[in-house]
Amino acid sequence: MNIELLNQASAFISQEADMLDHGEYPEWLALWEEKGLYIVPINPDETDFANTLNYACDDAKMRKLRVARLGSGESISTSPAPRTIRSVSRFRVLADDGKTVTVRCAQNLREFRKEIQKHYTANLTYTLVRDGDSFRIQQKVVRLLNSSDALQCIGYIP
Amino acid sequence: MTSQANSKGHTLADLVQHDRVHTSLYTDPAIFETEMDKVFANTWVWVAHTSEIPEAGSYKTGYIGRQPVVTVRDRKQQVHVLLNRCRHRAATVCEGHKGKTNSFVCPYHGWSYSLDGALRGVPSPESYGDLLDKADYPLVKLRVEEYAGMIFATFKDDIEPLVDFLGPAKKWMDLFMKQGGGFPIKVGGEHRFRFPGNWKIQLENTTDAYHFPLVHKSFLSSVDKQTEEMLDFVEGPGFVEDLGNGHSVMVMIPDLVDLEANLEAPIPERFAALAEELRADYPEDQVRRIVRAVGGSGFNLNIFPNIACSMAFFRVLRPVSVTETEIHHAVITMDGGPEAGNRARLRMHEHFQGPMGFGTPDDSEAWERVQKGSNAGTDQWILLNRGLAKEQETADGRRSDVSAETGMRAAYRQWKKLMTA
């Protein structure tokens, strides 16, 4: 097991989680490859995201628009903004070709907004491109534990 | 509660006036219980689009009111809507949302039913002697009829034919199905979510243009200028028309009523790249037809009580309790059509719809607040008089401006008719 790579990847992903929980969206956007995709599928076994319906399938333009919407004050479902705290753990390197690394981990996310606390659990799978001593995100897939069920609305970036 | 007055002295009939409805329609558990019998078990209710059960053995589970049902296609291609309940001791015989099966087998004692609901096998039948004639215990079957690929079922055996119930809504269904762009339309997946509010709040929303610029401001900020202008329809030339039997149509963008008309019009900028991609495989007239269809229809058709053909998707509502409703937004794709066109449809759907869309969560927040606010006051009314001043009779019913509450008035008139019958 390549502990150094595991440490690098988990440090990167923990930092990303911290940015999302603290609303550091410009920094979050800067973590991405220009052609990167942020995906929240409906079917947890789905692999053909382009040709199926997802909850989100954001390219760079949609990521920017999503971030803009969250901060715009124009959306009643995100004002007040939900507070989130997420923990990421159970990191495992699934593949490493020297250039890109595929990492899977667990995410436990608690959301609080207007008197209600909700809990979303997910498997996260990252495709990370090596960039000096860090990475850039080529793909992030958020497979919610209950993705195939009827959900409640999600007013943040899980 | 039927004809007797509630604690405020209102009878059920009093609760729906021509220009208002009583708040208890959103909050009274007794009214909800009555609705399950008098509305959902007493009229045509949409259960599936034909593309959701494409082959022999394809099924889709769902609910009519709170009653679990299975919609299934048998080996002779006949569609059945069956109560999802074993005739022995009531366990559901089918789980999972959609799939394919050869038969329905109860997991509890193994009673098995064919796709048309007939009871085929009972394990160890000796104990029954001659007390059990299998012909007496098929899965309970509902009356089923279909129009324009839309499958409806009803508990009421002597109800009028579906085509009569739909009436003038039929021609709008025909127009809506043109968004296949020359291909059959296909349900290509769905977003499902719940909100803490009464089902009629959602029913109203599909015929409510008034909220759009305000609630969907953040969505409008995320689209190109041309689309934003197209969606600026509240003071435009559109209209809402009551089509009878609780159905109504809200035309927001009159130019997009008939997707096979105006094919020579310039292709909107946002579809220029898609059109270019399609030109590699299709002649220009077909490219234009597909591109125009991809953008979706310019109207919402509300079919009472649970389905709407809404611009580019089907909106399905399911009452869960007096204060909880489940919504499905089913995306429509072209069956056998160009992948690029279907991808565009999928991305557009994701952009607005579903729990992470730029539109739905704001709708959901507004509905939730309607439910919350409805707890205030003891004898308050919901106003539905917008557009009443200019409402005029038409051949199909009555019509007013695009942001009129005519469609809601239509729905509540039907609600009252069913609830007081």
Please explain how this structure is put together:
The complex is a heterodimer of chains A (158) and B (421). Chain A is α+β, with helices and mostly antiparallel strands. Chain A has a single domain, classed as Nuclear Transport Factor 2, Chain: A (Roll), CATH 3.10.450. Chain A has three helices and six strands. In chain A, strands 2-1-6-5-4-3 form a six-stranded mixed β-sheet. In chain A, β5 and β6 form a beta hairpin. Chain A is globular. The mean pLDDT of chain A is 96. Chain B has two domains: 110 residues, Rieske Iron-sulfur Protein (3-layer Sandwich); 253 residues, Alpha-Beta Complex (Naphthalene 1,2-dioxygenase Alpha Subunit, Chain A, domain 1). Chain B contains 13 helices and 21 strands. Chain B has a nine-stranded antiparallel β-sheet with strand order 12-18-17-16-15-14-13-21-20, with helices on both faces. Chain B is globular, with a radius of gyration of 23 Å. By secondary structure, chain B is of the alpha+beta class.
Q: Which stretches of chain A of 5+ consecutive residues score pLDDT under 50?
A: none
By helix and strand content of chain A, what is the structural category? alpha+beta
Overall pLDDT of chain B: 96
Q: Kindly state the mean pLDDT of chain A as a whole number?
A: 96
Largest sheet of chain B: 9 strands, antiparallel
In order across it, which strands form the biggest sheet of chain B? 12-18-17-16-15-14-13-21-20
Low-confidence stretches of chain B: none
Task: State the CATH architecture of the largest domain in chain B.
Answer: Alpha-Beta Complex
Please tell me what the overall shape of chain B is.
Answer: globular
Q: Could you give a short account of the major beta sheet of chain A?
A: 6 strands, mixed
Count of structural domains of chain A: 1
User: How far is the first residue's CA from the last residue's CA of chain A?
Assistant: 29 Å
Tally of alpha and pi helices of chain A: 3
The helix content of chain B, as a percent range, equals 25-40%
